[in-house]
Design the sequence.
């Protein structure tokens, strides 16, 4: 059984279908997945076949080659993970806008219950709302996102406030981990007939996504790009060649970080020229790896158990897990800051808008809205890295080429956009658009709240300055004094098509992954 606080049930009692359907839209993995575990439990209870539909829609603003390739590579991993089980796995890529809605409605007509990922932002949120509104079968929305449930009965306005809550409730949350691998529990299930799958697609006037199409996209380069060209998506945002999507690549990257870099995390994570961060944010965003797996393997590596926790009551970030400082620093990021974003976005629908930042921050920014700006840039100038600041331009080029910006520089990147735009509302609009379009971890609670942090969300007031008011200020000059940036700037001083990654070893950790063609 999954924890009750991770489950929301709608249309209760409308159950008379032929199968359990799991509509996989954000927790795109077969392990450590509350949603898949719950779907298997329901199928066993009702002695019904289980169908997993992993759907990828195109009817949204930021559908592009980059995100599509990353998700479709994950479909390949999921297909392999489920092919020897009785679970019917159906990867589906929408070929024309809104085609998927008809398919979803038709599957709901066949379903005894629809299990769907509960994700608080962007397209997954809209899809779950549509599923509920169709109102033809019971719908179970399952939260597989964070260490704790995102549906909390209170708001947390700072990381400190969430830490204090965790200090009091940590033992409860340690008992809420999903099964590492729920798939063996499906061993006795009946299989849903392929003939009925074909009938459902035909009746909804939806083409079945050929395996050949998925395989071709996984090849990236010309083969993949040619396959993607038939889709009505943005082809100007290319796949990140050195960063493959999927659970296999996610596990490879995680293991490399766990074994080689976690022990120096505190010292190296803010250094632009050191490979100190985990690089897991795209995989966490698309659900290719679970935070529960990350935590479980950290605990196992450190021979840790719950008895070593000594929770304080002062909200401090480290020194209470009973683990090395670098590990506790990483846990603060993957638990506190990540879950803070999900909890906030689940409660605040306009999380990506200026109106969502605290009143004190809105007030101080509006008071300084008419302050002279040292520079003003258009959206196109920002997008094309055409500012006077070589470090900012390098960060933007990294975003365009690799789908990520170094952790510390991402904060500076946002602060400078605030400083170089006419109003804070425009600054937030630009940051959201640039991140949603180019970042592999865009359209995510953590990136929306990270952008909000630039404007004072989850922060406190600082010394008042022009333009910033009482919002925390960051400068390029101070960043260059703190950290070495010369090599970083050199690496990202050329157009994305000509530059090399700063950390080739990270790219290499997934380069040995191949996709075997199977007919």
Sequence:
């Amino acid at each position: 059984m999954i924890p009750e606080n991770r489950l929301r049930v709608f249309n209760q009692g409308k159950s008379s279908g032929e199968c359990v359907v799991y509509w996989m839209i954000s927790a795109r993995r077969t392990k450590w997945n509350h949603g898949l575990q719950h779907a298997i439990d329901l199928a066993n209870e009702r002695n019904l076949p289980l169908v997993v539909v992993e759907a990828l829609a195109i009817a949204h603003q930021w559908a592009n080659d980059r995100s599509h390739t990353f998700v479709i590579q994950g479909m390949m991993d999921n297909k392999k993970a489920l092919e020897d089980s009785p679970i019917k796995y159906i990867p589906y890529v929408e070929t024309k806008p809104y085609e998927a809605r008809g398919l979803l409605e038709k599957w709901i007509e066949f379903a005894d219950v629809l299990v769907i990922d509960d994700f608080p932002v962007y397209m997954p949120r809209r899809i779950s709302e549509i599923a509920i509104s169709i109102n033809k079968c019971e719908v179970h929305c399952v939260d597989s996102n964070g260490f704790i449930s995102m549906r909390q009965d209170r708001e947390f306005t700072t990381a400190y406030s969430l830490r204090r809550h965790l200090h009091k409730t940590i033992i409860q949350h340690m008992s809420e981990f999903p099964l590492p691998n729920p798939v063996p529990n499906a061993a006795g299930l009946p299989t849903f007939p392929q003939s009925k799958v074909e009938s459902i697609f035909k009746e909804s006037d939806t083409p079945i996504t050929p395996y050949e199409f998925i395989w071709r996209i996984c090849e990236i380069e010309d083969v993949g790009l040619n396959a993607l060209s038939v889709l009505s998506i943005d082809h100007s945002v290319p796949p990140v060649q050195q960063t493959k999507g999927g659970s296999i690549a996610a596990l490879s990257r995680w293991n490399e970080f766990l074994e080689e870099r976690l022990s120096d995390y505190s010292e190296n994570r803010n250094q632009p020229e050191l490979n100190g961060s985990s690089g897991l944010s795209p995989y966490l965003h698309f659900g290719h790896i679970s935070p529960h797996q990350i935590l479980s393997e950290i605990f196992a590596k450190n021979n840790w158990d719950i008895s070593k926790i000594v929770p304080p009551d002062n909200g401090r970030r480290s020194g209470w897990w009973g683990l090395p400082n670098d590990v506790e620093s990483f846990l603060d990021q993957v638990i506190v800051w990540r879950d803070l974003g999900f909890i906030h976005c689940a409660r605040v629908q306009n999380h990506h808008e200026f109106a969502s930042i605290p009143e004190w921050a809105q007030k101080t920014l509006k008071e300084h809205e008419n302050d002279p700006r040292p520079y003003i840039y258009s959206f196109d100038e920002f997008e094309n890295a055409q500012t006077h600041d070589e470090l900012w331009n390098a960060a933007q080029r990294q975003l365009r080429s690799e789908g990520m910006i170094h952790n510390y520089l991402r904060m500076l990147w946002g602060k400078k956009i605030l400083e170089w735009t006419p109003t804070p509302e425009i600054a937030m609009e630009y940051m959201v658009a640039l991140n949603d379009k180019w970042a592999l971890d865009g359209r995510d609670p953590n990136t929306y709240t990270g952008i909000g942090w630039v404007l004072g969300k989850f922060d406190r007031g600082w010394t008042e300055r022009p333009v910033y008011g009482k919002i925390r200020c960051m400068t390029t000059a101070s960043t260059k004094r703190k950290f070495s940036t010369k090599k970083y700037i050199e690496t990202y001083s050329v157009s994305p098509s000509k530059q090399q990654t700063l950390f080739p070893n990270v790219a290499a950790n997934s380069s040995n992954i191949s996709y075997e063609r199977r007919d």
In short: The chain has 22 helices and six strands.
